[in-house]
Amino acid sequence: MDFIPEENRIAIFDFDGTLFCETNPTYFDFQLFIHRVLEDPNYQATEEQLEVAERFRDTGYVPPLSAEYERMLASTYAGLTLSEFEKYVREFMQSNQPGYENLKRADAYYRPMAEVVKFLSENGFTVYVSTGTDRLTVRPLVMQTMNLPANQIIGSESLVIAKEQGDTDGLSYMFKEGDELVLGGKNLIKNLQMNKLVLTWQLVYMLFDSE
């Protein structure tokens, strides 16, 4: 490792298909969406959410740049506090991965790649994960399986608002004592294509020549 100066030891990995099962059976966030809308007895889905979830479940395919899917995905968790959503994701991580015996969803990662991440981290590398999955969805998963801190996980961005904010613009609302941050039910930016480059540059700017 000595041939790479320590200040230049940065590694960035994709998530789906690189560190974690992508299409076996399908994306983690898609599995979570299907569970939330079609299987969770505590959630009352809208007719539109049900229609989209059933259609995509039956085809088994989600277009990676589907605006309809991203809109439905964000809307299903609207109103959950950030801690409630993290708990929901972590509980789902402990359910069984379809198609396998004795495998939890949290463990559906590639062990050799986890060893690569561990090796780099132990040798002075700052390791980032950049994914098209919403970062609040993927953070618990990557933090547990790859032992990386939250600020090294880059993903799609969803709206976060104050619980009492309602439709008030964030520039006009002041966070109050006792208020909480909740998911606003809207996708802001999908971390794919050119967006992935921009978000990575914003968070890991030292990789690039700023001149």
Question: In terms of topology, how is this protein built?
Answer:
Layout: E1 10-14, H1 28-39, H2 47-59, H3 67-75, H4 82-93, H5 111-122, E2 126-134, H6 135-145, E3 153-162, E4 181-189, H7 194-203
Parallel strand pairs: 1-2, 2-3
Antiparallel strand pairs: 3-4
Helix pairs in contact: 1-2, 4-6
Keywords:
16% strand, 211 residues, four-stranded mixed sheet, alpha/beta, globular
Briefly summarize what is shown:
Helices cover 37% and strands 16% of the residues. It has seven helices and four strands.
Cα-to-Cα separation, first versus last residue: 28 Å
- Spatial sequence of strands, sheet with the most strands: 1-2-3-4
So how many helices? 7
Strand content: 15-25%
User: What is Rg?
Assistant: 18 Å
Number of strands: 4
Describe the biggest sheet? 4 strands, mixed
Helix content: 25-40%
The average pLDDT value, as a whole number, equals 90
Sequence of secondary-structure elements = EHHHHHEHEEH
Uncertain residue segments: none
Structural class: alpha/beta
Shape: globular
